[in-house]
């Protein structure tokens, strides 16, 4: 195996994703080629660096990929059939009709729009910041024993 | 969350290392960051990544290698010499 062939396989070798025969050839090449052995060590360092990050910056493209990956891995997806939608619609209409009939019979005015929360009562949540994850710190007091860091589930570094 | 087992100086060094890696990651394309995240954070196999992204297995292999090579370049003197 020459250097070009080895380099093309180094990442897969590092990840244990080579066939046994290929892995053996790469291993033998690394014993005899210091340049490729150095490249392999660099790959190890790069992988360690990526893994060391507590969480990964997320953008829309990666979020989509993460969702796709999760669905693909779980092998499950929820499909709602037309029959269920029709049944749900019938149920909503029936309940709404019953409520309206009861209200008109009892002379109860329909409920108005719910009052909006004054801006002063809204908790300010940090938004997107230079491509970093939005992080909400839920600390009751300054000297709280622990603070909960919230972020999109499944998008934090897993290992 | 910061590692509370480290002393303040070690914690600062760790934060600086994290910042350097994040800055380097930010220079990569979305495609490269995606495969790195799927492999090194989510622990997905090449086959799972290929299926999720709807690309051939060989594409995953080369994209991951190129992503790591690009990251090594972005990290500069900290890691050097990955390119053939």
Continuous helix count of chain B: 4
Helix content percent band of chain A: 40-55%
Main sheet makeup of chain B: none
What integer is the average pLDDT of chain A?
66
Low-pLDDT windows of residues of chain A: 112-159
Tell me about the largest β-sheet of chain A.
2 strands, antiparallel
Mean pLDDT of chain B: 85
Order of strands, main sheet of chain A, comes to: 1-2
Oligomeric state of this protein: heterodimer
User: Compute the gyration radius of chain B: what is it?
Assistant: 15 Å
The beta-strand count of chain A equals 2
What is the radius of gyration of chain A computed over CA atoms, rounded to a whole number of angstroms?
28 Å
Structural class call of chain B reads mainly alpha
**Largest contact between chains:** A-B, 40 and 42 residues
Give the low-confidence spans of chain B.
none
Give an account of the 3D structure:
The complex is a heterodimer of chains A (159) and B (84). In chain A, helix 1 (3-14) crosses helix 2 (20-32) and helix 1 (3-14) runs parallel beside helix 3. By secondary structure, chain A is mainly α. Chain A has helices at residues 3-14, 20-32, 34-52, 60-74, 82-106; strands at residues 136-138, 148-150. In chain B, 69% of the residues lie in helices and 0% in strands. The A-B interface holds A 3-4, 7-8, 10-12, 15, 17, 35, 38-39, 42-43, 45-47, 49-54, 56-57, 59, 61-62, 65-66, 68-69, 72-73, 131, 147, 149, 157-159 and B 1, 17-18, 21-22, 24-26, 30-31, 33-34, 36-46, 48-49, 51-53, 61-62, 64-65, 68, 71-72, 75, 78-82, 84.
